[in-house]
Amino acid sequence: MTSSTPCSSMSNHTKERVTMTKVTLENFYSNLIAQHEEREMRQKKLEKVMEEEGLKDEEKRLRRSAHARKETEFLRLKRTRLGLEDFESLKVIGRGAFGEVRLVQKKDTGHVYAMKILRKADMLEKEQVGHIRAERDILVEADSLWVVKMFYSFQDKLNLYLIMEFLPGGDMMTLLMKKDTLTEEETQFYIAETVLAIDSIHQLGFIHRDIK
């Protein structure tokens, strides 16, 4: 006959290990449930958009197939285990409210990317976690010339890292700083491009709330 060891007789080290294991398991299954709910939400959003557009059955089938491929690619990216040690930082190319953007090079392939580094503490303090998740979803779902591509994402205790396509042309602010004033033709061109870019986001079911 054996007797179980009462919890009160456990060492502090054992109690800490038990607590850590419990939290790890809870987080693991919570993340699985959240991922499943997010996939279902994206699928429902796709079905709603297709109904609103009045697509034919064959067009719906093609759209669903493309969506399934994107979901598969998204899962592949999530399973890819990467960290800061896999990239060489070349220089800082931008700064924002939650962190900075660095030009980096992947060590094993030599490919160059833009690494967006977001401080978790700032996101939590300013209650922007939902917005950041929406941004990530757009980057994953989008297959458009108007939306920058995201290739990888990972995190550590302090930061969230988004590894994205590097676009060397810069942004509108940089252009205005260089040229000061745009011609009428240039203004028409960039406004037209902006409208097309915003429309592509609307087609995905998202609204841009920080246009400036």
Task: Give the low-pLDDT segments.
Answer: 1-5
Q: Could you name the CATH topology of the domain at 84-169?
A: Phosphorylase Kinase, domain 1
The whole-number mean of residue pLDDT values reads 80
* Radius of gyration from CA coordinates: 22 Å
**Reading side by side through the largest sheet, how are the strands ordered?**
1-2-3-5-4
| Anisotropy-based shape | globular
What percentage of residues falls in helices of 4 or more residues?
A: 40-55%
Order of helices and strands: HHEEEHHEEHH
Structural class category: alpha+beta
Spatial separation of the terminal alpha carbons: 74 Å
What is the CATH superfamily label of the domain at 84-169? Phosphorylase Kinase, domain 1
The helix tally amounts to 6
Name of the CATH architecture of the domain at 84-169: 2-Layer Sandwich
Explain the overall architecture:
- The chain has a five-stranded antiparallel β-sheet with strand order 1-2-3-5-4.
- Among the domains are: 18-79; 84-169, Phosphorylase Kinase, domain 1 (2-Layer Sandwich), CATH 3.30.200.
- It is built from six helices and five strands; from the N terminus they run ααβββααββαα.
- The chain is of the alpha+beta class and 212 residues long.
- The chain has helices at residues 12-53, 57-79, 120-125, 129-141, 172-179, 184-203; strands at 87-95, 99-106, 112-119, 150-155, 159-164.
- 53% of the residues lie in helices and 17% in strands.
- Helix 1 packs antiparallel against helix 2 (57-79).
